[in-house]
């Protein structure tokens, strides 16, 4: 998408250059006339132009550390709602980890969790049924959750276009750290020699995305035991049902922070961002946490 936005002072040299290029070689007099003409034009006239009204893709990446799963879902809902009221194509991407928990997407079921209720209780695991694509995912610290909030309609992307960009961003990240990885035909995710490295499951509401991808970085195989993120009915012959991690693929595993920054860089590239900004946490998150706690207290009373 063309980067056509900017202030009048930023646009002025580009306007001068483009107008001079399409005319005969300018004299000093013609240049002065052109400058006087541009200076007389109201800034609002430039801002009302269809061409200049298009804004470059801006992505705000928020690296939030370990956050409660339910509160993160609430934050995504708030961001989706706010995105629906904008028309600038702004993209927000949350990068975080979650305490141990199992989420079940639309392609998953309880039978993909090979754990008894007692085993779940012993491991202090809870389940959440989530309206996203994909199967079951075992969340744990050491797994990077990637939640882009993208207004697809603004960019003319189909859901398939978006999934390809998201998947390729993860693939670029793995290759940056020299982890051999690949995609499966007809599947969205990331695979390595030791198994599935990243699961992808998104939701789309009014053409705005939420949820996203889960890349296992430093979490060990014990955290994935009994949870089929790659169940037999979806997997290729010979695939393991449980997820692996970058830790299993390389002797010099990067930290979760290094991977988060790499994912941000490569997603910005794949999404065609003209500007990407890195933040710690998100300014709306404290408000979301407060509302969540208020609801919990009301339910308990």
Protein topology:
Blueprint (H helix, E strand, L loop, with lengths): L7 H14 L6 H13 L2 H5 L2 H4 L4 E9 L2 H15 L7 E7 L3 E4 L12 H6 L4 E3 L6 E4 L3 E7 L2 H4 L3 H18 L4 E2 L6 E4 L2 E11 L2 E9 L39 H15 L4 E6 L4 H16 L1
Parallel strand pairs: 1-2, 1-11, 3-4
Antiparallel strand pairs: 2-6, 3-5, 6-10, 7-8, 8-9, 9-10
Helix pairs in contact: 5-10, 8-9
Quick structural summary:
Its EC number is 2.3.1.181. The chain is α/β, with parallel strands linked by helices.
Structure description:
With 301 residues, the protein is of the alpha/beta class. It has two domains: 8-53, no CATH class; 58-297, BirA Bifunctional Protein, domain 2, CATH 3.30.930.10. Helices cover 37% and strands 22% of the residues. It has ten helices and eleven strands. It has helices spanning 8-21, 28-40, 43-47, 50-53, 69-83, 117-122, 152-155, 159-176, 256-270, 285-300, and strands spanning 58-66, 91-97, 101-104, 127-129, 136-139, 143-149, 181-182, 189-192, 195-205, 208-216, 275-280. The model is unreliable at 1-56 (pLDDT under 50).
Contiguous helical run count: 10
What is the correct CATH architecture of the largest domain? 2-Layer Sandwich
Q: How many domain units?
A: 2
Distance between the termini: 52 Å
Q: Give the overall shape, derived from the CA principal axes.
A: globular
Strand order of the largest sheet: 7-8-9-10-6-2-1-11
> Would you state the CATH class of the largest domain?
Alpha Beta
N-to-C series of helices and strands: HHHHEHEEHEEEHHEEEEHEH
User: Spans of 5+ residues with little confidence (pLDDT < 50)?
Assistant: 1-56
The assigned structural class equals alpha/beta
Please provide the count of β strands.
Answer: 11
Per CATH, the superfamily of the largest domain is: Bira Bifunctional Protein, Domain 2
Kindly state the percentage of residues in helix: 25-40%
